[in-house]
Design a protein that fits this description.
By secondary structure, this protein is of the alpha/beta class. 51% of the residues lie in helices and 17% in strands.
């Protein structure tokens, strides 16, 4: 590691260490207030992220529901606040984890039914609090293996990984994860994946519809489901105004996986995510370039202004 990189790692790690040291002792009501203030501040100061969030929201809701720009902006602000609470809760739940999870997280009836299963594929999105969802899932399920992206800063990565695994959640990184996931499924373990990110066809992705526009999505969920013959469900964790969470599950119909192709299964899973977002639009991470790639032969009309046609190397199947 170069000297400059070491300095950067140190400079980033110190605030993270202090956050793990201080934030867990902030009273819950103050943490909620802090997330709202910081979320509004982030919206005001983060010009690039604000632009992406507004472009996404106007693309989706302005054409469908004809919301005013002020209404769209309010959803964007609340989305930033949701993301800030998600980040702060990574630190806050790192102390007295099990007691706090049992106090502040409850299962909806749909989630209780899913938790009774011994094996399955839990689909997650950057919707609500996906970090706490993993910790709670390991607490209530009989085994949970999650896939995560490795953070660039190795020190912070170790801190966050340690926090994620407090309740017994196993975490594997994206590279080479499929083999480990298949092994876990054979051992009657629930596996969890975040799939609302851009995965181009060259990396194993497939274009499916989301809010009326094609987006590239990983085939991993469908690949696991068809090989493992397991129940697939979207799980998400939504906070109320007091910072208490409830976990919900939206399963695909019984027998759906066995009858359909990977493309059909992937589309159905994305539709579950879309429906959940429509019900609680402020809980999704709108400041992500979800409609970044326009598939070959598709008109650019309707896409956000940041979108671009996918290039041949990105389009080529691996």
């Amino acid at each position: 590691m170069k000297q400059r990189s070491k300095i950067k790692v140190f400079a980033e790690s110190v605030p993270a260490f202090l956050a793990f040291l201080i934030i867990p002792w902030i009273p819950r009501f103050l943490l909620i207030l802090l997330s709202r203030l910081l979320g509004r501040l982030a919206f005001a100061l983060s010009k690039r992220q604000r632009y992406v969030a507004m472009a996404n929201l106007l693309t989706v809701f302005n054409k469908e529901h004809k919301l005013s720009e002020s209404e769209v902006e309010q959803i964007a602000v609340e989305s930033f606040q949701t993301m800030l609470l998600t980040a702060l809760d990574v630190f806050w739940f790192s102390v007295q984890t099990e007691r706090r999870l049992r106090k502040y997280i409850k299962l909806d009836e749909s989630a209780e039914l899913y938790a009774s299963r011994k094996r399955g594929v839990a689909v997650a999105a950057h919707f609500g609090n996906w970090e706490i969802l993993g910790q709670a899932g390991a607490l209530y399920l009989d085994g949970l293996l999650s896939v995560a992206a490795e953070l660039r800063n190795p020190v912070i990565n170790r801190m966050v990984s340690r926090s994620r695994q407090i309740t017994g959640q196993q975490v594997v990184y994206q590279d080479g994860a499929i083999r480990q996931l298949m092994k876990a499924l054979k051992g009657d373990t629930v596996v969890a994946l975040l799939i609302d990110q851009n995965v181009v066809p060259a990396d194993g992705g497939i274009f499916v519809d989301m809010f009326g526009l094609p987006v590239p999505v990983s085939r991993a969920v469908a690949a696991l489901a068809t090989k493992g013959d397991v129940q697939v469900a979207l799980l998400y964790c939504i906070a109320d105004k007091r910072g208490h969470y409830k976990v919900f599950a939206r399963p695909l119909p019984e027998g759906f996986v066995g009858e359909n192709t990977q493309e059909v299964i992937t589309q159905a899973v994305v539709k579950l995510i879309e429906d959940a977002i429509r019900e609680n639009p402020s809980k999704w991470m709108w400041a992500y370039k979800r409609w970044k790639f326009i598939p070959a032969g598709c008109a650019e009309e309707g896409y956000p202004t940041y979108a671009r046609p996918i290039e041949p190397p990105e389009r080529k199947s691996s």
